[in-house]
From TrEMBL:
Biological process per Gene Ontology, one example term: DNA replication, synthesis of primer
Record's function text: Initiates the restart of stalled replication forks, which reloads the replicative helicase on sites other than the origin of replication. Recognizes and binds to abandoned replication forks and remodels them to uncover a helicase loading site. Promotes assembly of the primosome at these replication forks.
InterPro entries named among the record's database cross-references: DEAD/DEAH_box_helicase_dom (IPR011545), Helicase_ATP-bd (IPR014001), Helicase_C-like (IPR001650), P-loop_NTPase (IPR027417), PriA (IPR005259), PriA_3primeBD (IPR041222), PriA_3primeBD_sf (IPR042115), PriA_C (IPR041236)
Residues in Helicase ATP-binding domain copies: 211-377
Native source organism of the sequence: Pacificibacter maritimus
Cofactor(s) required, per the database record: Zn(2+)
This protein's UniProt keywords: ATP-binding, DNA replication, DNA-binding, Helicase, Hydrolase, Isomerase, Metal-binding, Nucleotide-binding, Primosome, Zinc
Identification of the protein by name: Replication restart protein PriA
Length: 730
C-alpha cells in the first residue's frame, strides 16, 4: 500500500445498486480516511449500500456537497489485481460496475450485523443414545469435516429436524461454535509424495512446475486422452504453487465431479481444499470468501464464479475440461470463465493450465498462433489404449419407432455381460421422451412460456420444460382436439432407454445416471462408486457420464444417437459433436482391457462422424479452422449477439428492426450486423427473444462500437437489451 492509495478526504466508491451506474461516485472519507479497495457502507438515496473504494475523488469537485462514507467494513480490502480484473471484465462484457461488484461479493453478506449465528461441527463427545437420525448427522459431518453449517443448513443437508442436532450438543458429540467466517481451513501439505509418475507424465509435470515456478503469466494447454493422468500431473503444478505460498484455483465444469476430486486432493495433500459452487451453503461461502481474501484458503476448487473470489496471491488457475460449454455464463454477466481465467492470471503473474482431451477450437488456434504453450500426454496411463471405434449403420437395422437399441448393439452388450464386463449406453437427453404427440391431430405439447416442447419425465410422472424448468401434469386428453388416449411419446430419453434395456436384458443389473435423478450429490457419488466397484452390468447415462469418472471394468460404449448434435445450423455443432463423442468413447477400456465404442448413426458418411471414427484430430481441427476462417467467425473474427427481449413480440421486433437500420456506429469501424432473427431459444419464460449478430475483424474495437450503437437508441419501455460478446452459438 503506497501513499497514493490513502484517501484522507474524499474517495470514489463503486456502489452495489440495481441501477446500471457505469462509474464510481464521490464520497467524503470517514474520520481517519480510507484506502484503496476498502469495503465500505455508503448512503445512496434513502438506503445504505455496500461499496468499494475505487480511487481518489476527482479534482475540482466540491467535496462539501458529497455525502460521507458511513463506515469501513472489517474485512481485507479488495486486492488491486481484483479491482483491475473487475474493471476489465466489465468493459469486455459491457457490464456496468455495480453488476461486476455484485459478482465479486456474492454470498459474503458483508452488511449483515456482526453475525451471532452459530455453526455446528463434529465434536469428540460420546453420543448419548444412537438413533438413526443421530448416526446420519455424524456420518454427514464426517464426510465433510471442513465445511461450516448453520443449524438450519445442517438439518436440511442431512434431512433431519433441527431438534435432533440441538439434542446432540450437550454431550459434545456436536460442537456449537461462533464466527464461522473466521474458521481456518486445514493446511494442505505440498511436500507429501504423489503417485509415482510414468516418464511421460513426469516430464510434463516438470514442465508445468516450471511454468508455475517462473511466477509470471503463461497459459498452457494440457492435452491428453481421458485417463492419461492429466489430473495427476496438474496436481504437481498445484503442489509447486502451494509450496511457493501462493493460492491455486481449480475450475471444474460440473459439481457432480467435485466430490471425487476432493478425495484426490485429500489423498495428495492431506486434506480437502475450499469449495465454491451452487451446492455450498451460504455460511460456507461466506467463510470461503473471507478466507480466500485473508489468504487462509490455499486452494479453491469451484465452478466458474470462483474466479471472482478476492485472491490475495494467486499463482495458478487450472481450467479442467476447458472445452466445456458450461464455462460460459448465460445469464446476468455473460462471461466465459475459461477466457477470463487467462485475463485474471495475466493480472497476477499467474500460470494457467487448460486441461482437456478434446480442446476447444479457440484454444487449439491460440496454440497454433503461439499464444499458448502445449503439452501432450500421448497415451493412457498404464497399459490401457484408446477404444476401437465403429459406426452401426441404422439404415440397415429394422427397428420400430419405439425401439432404439440395434441388434448389433444388443449382441455386443450380451458379449460383455457374459465376460463379466460393463457396458455404457449413452444418450444425451434427460427424461423419457423429448416429444409428446397426439396421434389423432398431430398436436405436440409445448411449454406455455417458452418456445420449447415439454419433455415427459416418467419417474416424476410429469412433463417438464428444459428451458424454464416448469412442469405440468401429463394429460390424458389432447389439449388441442380433446380426443382421449391418443397422446404418445416420440423419440428416446434416458428413462425410455432404461425401459428398453430392462426388456432386452431382463437379468442385467442396470444403473441410470442422469443429473435429475439424484436428490443429492451424495446419492450420485454412491451410485458412481457402485458402478466403479463393478456392481453393475449396464450403465445408462446422459452427458453426466461423459465427464471424468473412472469405471475400470467398462469396456463397451454404445452411443444411441450419434447424429443428435449434428442437426441445426449452428457453426459450432461439428466441434461439439466431435468433442462429446470422443469424451464418451473415452469411458471405455480404462484399465488393462481394450474398449470398443459403437456409434449408432443414420449418416455414417457425414464428415464429422467419419472424423470421429478415424480419430484424426489434427485433420479435424484443421478443416474446422479453415471453415471458420473463411466465414470470418471466432476464433478468427469477433462476434457479438444482441438480444432484445420483452413480453410483446411486436415491440421486440420493432426495436430490433430499428437497430438493424441504424448501424452507423458499426459501419464506421467496419463491423456488420446480421438479422434480426429469432434467438436460438425464441421464447423463454414468456419473453420473446430476437437476436442480431454482429461480426467484425479481429482488430476492430468492437465493444466501443457496440456501446455507441446501443447508446444512440431509445428502446420501447418493456424491451430489454443484452449484449453477448463471443456467443456460444452462431
Ligand atoms: P485424466 O485426468 O487425464 O482423465 P487421471 O489423472 O484422472 O486422468 O488418471 C486416470 C486414472 O489413472 C486415475 O485413477 C489415476 O489415479 C490413475 N493414474 C494416473 N497416473 C497414475 C500414476 N502415475 N500412478 C498411479 N495411478 C495413476
Ligand atoms: Zn418453459
Amino acid at each position: 500500500m503506497t501513499q497514493d492509495d490513502y484517501f484522507p478526504q474524499g474517495a470514489l466508491v463503486a456502489v452495489l445498486t440495481t441501477e446500471p451506474l457505469d462509474r464510481p461516485l464521490d464520497y467524503k472519507s470517514p474520520g481517519g480516511g480510507c484506502r484503496l479497495g476498502d469495503f465500505v457502507q455508503v448512503p445512496l438515496g434513502p438506503r445504505k449500500v455496500l461499496g468499494c473504494v475505487w480511487g481518489q475523488g476527482k479534482g475540482g469537485f466540491d467535496l462539501s456537497k458529497a455525502r460521507s462514507i458511513s463506515n469501513i467494513l472489517d474485512v481485507a480490502p479488495m486486492p488491486p489485481a481484483m479491482m483491475e480484473f473487475l474493471g476489465k471484465v466489465g468493459s469486455y462484457t459491457l457490464t456496468p460496475m455495480p453488476a461486476m461488484l455484485r459478482l465479486a461479493t456474492r454470498a459474503p453478506g458483508l452488511l449483515d450485523p456482526p453475525s451471532m449465528r452459530k455453526i455446528y461441527r463434529l465434536g469428540t463427545g460420546e453420543m448419548p443414545r444412537e438413533t438413526d437420525a443421530r448416526k446420519r448427522v455424524i456420518a454427514a459431518l464426517k464426510e465433510t469435516p471442513n465445511l461450516a453449517f448453520t443449524l438450519k443448513e445442517l438439518a436440511e443437508h442431512v434431512g433431519v429436524g433441527t431438534a435432533v442436532i440441538k439434542g446432540m450438543v450437550p454431550s459434545g458429540a456436536i460442537l456449537e461454535q461462533d464466527s464461522p467466517r473466521d474458521l481456518e481451513f486445514p493446511r494442505l501439505d505440498p511436500s507429501r509424495d504423489g503417485k509415482v509418475l510414468s516418464d511421460a507424465q513426469a516430464s510434463v509435470a516438470t514442465a508445468l512446475r516450471a511454468e508455475v515456478a517462473a511466477e509470471r503469466y503463461s497459459t498452457t494447454l494440457l492435452k491428453g486422452v481421458t485417463g492419461s493422468g492429466k489430473t495427476e500431473v496438474y496436481l504437481e503444478a498445484v503442489a509447486e504453487c502451494l509450496a511457493q505460498g501462493r493460492q491455486a484455483l481449480v475450475l471444474l465444469p460440473e459439481i457432480a465431479l467435485t466430490s471425487e476430486f476432493l478425495d484426490r486432493v485429500e489423498e495428495r495433500f492431506g486434506c480437502k481444499p475450499a469449495e465454491w459452487h451452487s451446492g455450498v451453503t451460504m455460511t460456507e461461502r461466506r467463510r470461503v470468501w473471507k478466507m480466500v481474501g485473508s489468504g487462509g484458503a490455499q486452494m479453491v476448487i469451484g465452478a466458474r464464479s470462483a474466479l471472482f473470489l478476492p485472491y490475495q496471491n494467486l499463482g495458478l488457475i487450472v481450467v479442467d475440461e476447458e472445452h466445456d460449454t458450461s464455462y460460459k455464463q448465460e445469464e446476468g454477466v455473460l462471461y466465459n470463465a475459461r477466457d477470463m481465467s487467462v485475463l485474471r492470471a495475466s493480472l497476477s503473474g499467474a500460470a494457467v493450465i487448460l486441461a482437456s482431451a478434446t480442446p476447444s477450437l479457440e484454444t487449439w488456434a491460440n496454440v497454433q498462433a503461439g499464444k499458448y504453450k502445449r503439452l501432450d500426454l500421448e497415451s493412457r496411463f498404464g497399459p490401457a489404449v484408446m477404444p476401437e471405434m465403429r459406426a452401426l449403420d441404422m439404415r440397415t437395422e429394422k427397428l420400430s419407432a419405439t425401439r432404439f437399441i440395434s441388434d448389433q448393439l444388443v449382441a455386443a452388450v450380451n458379449e460383455r455381460i457374459e465376460k463379466g464386463e460393463q457396458s455404457l449406453l449413452f444418450i444425451n437427453r434427460r427424461g423419457y421422451a423429448p416429444v409428446t404427440i397426439c396421434r389423432a391431430c398431430g398436436f405436440q405439447i409445448a411449454c406455455d412460456d417458452c418456445d420449447a416442447r415439454m419433455v415427459e419425465h416418467r419417474f416424476l410422472n410429469r412433463l417438464m420444460c428444459h428451458q424454464c424448468g416448469e412442469t405440468k401434469e401429463m394429460p390424458t386428453i389432447c389439449p388441442s382436439c380433446q380426443v382421449e388416449g391418443r397422446l404418445a411419446p416420440v423419440g428416446p430419453g434416458v428413462e425410455r432407454l432404461a425401459e428398453e434395456v430392462a426388456e432386452k436384458f431382463p437379468d442385467a443389473k442396470v444403473a441410470v445416471l442422469s443429473s435429475d435423478l439424484f436428490g443429492s450429490a451424495r446419492a450420485l457419488k454412491e451410485q458412481i462408486q457402485l458402478i466403479a466397484n463393478g456392481d453393475t452390468d449396464i450403465v445408462i447415462g446422459t452427458q453426466l457420464v461423459a465427464k471424468g469418472h473412472n469405471f475400470p471394468n467398462l469396456t463397451l460404449v454404445g452411443v444411441i444417437d450419434a447424429d443428435l448434435g449434428l442437426q441445426g445450423s449452428d457453426l459450432r455443432a461439428a466441434e461439439r459433436t466431435f468433442q462429446l463423442m470422443r469424451q464418451v468413447a473415452g469411458r471405455a477400456g480404462r484399465a488393462e482391457k481394450r474398449g470398443t465404442a459403437l456409434l449408432q448413426t443414420y449418416q455414417p458418411e457425414h464428415p464429422v462422424i467419419r472424423a470421429i471414427l478415424a480419430g484424426d484430430e489434427e485433420g479435424f481441427w484443421q478443416a474446422e479452422a479453415d471453415e471458420r476462417r473463411l466465414a470470418g467467425v471466432p476464433p478468427f473474427g469477433r462476434m457479438a449477439g444482441i438480444i432484445l427481449s420483452g413480453p410483446d413480440l411486436g415491440d421486440v421486433t420493432r426495436a430490433a428492426d430499428l437497430m438493424a437500420r441504424n448501424t452507423q456506429a458499426l459501419q464506421r469501424v467496419g463491423a456488420m450486423a446480421f438479422g434480426p432473427a429469432p434467438a436460438p431459444i425464441a421464447r423463454v419464460r414468456g419473453k420473446h427473444r430476437v437476436r442480431l449478430l454482429v461480426k467484425a475483424d479481429k482488430a476492430v474495437p468492437l465493444q466501443a462500437a457496440l456501446s455507441q450503437w446501443a447508446a444512440g437508441l431509445r428502446l420501447p419501455k418493456h424491451v430489454k437489451l443484452q449484449i453477448d460478446i463471443d456467443p456460444q452459438s452462431f
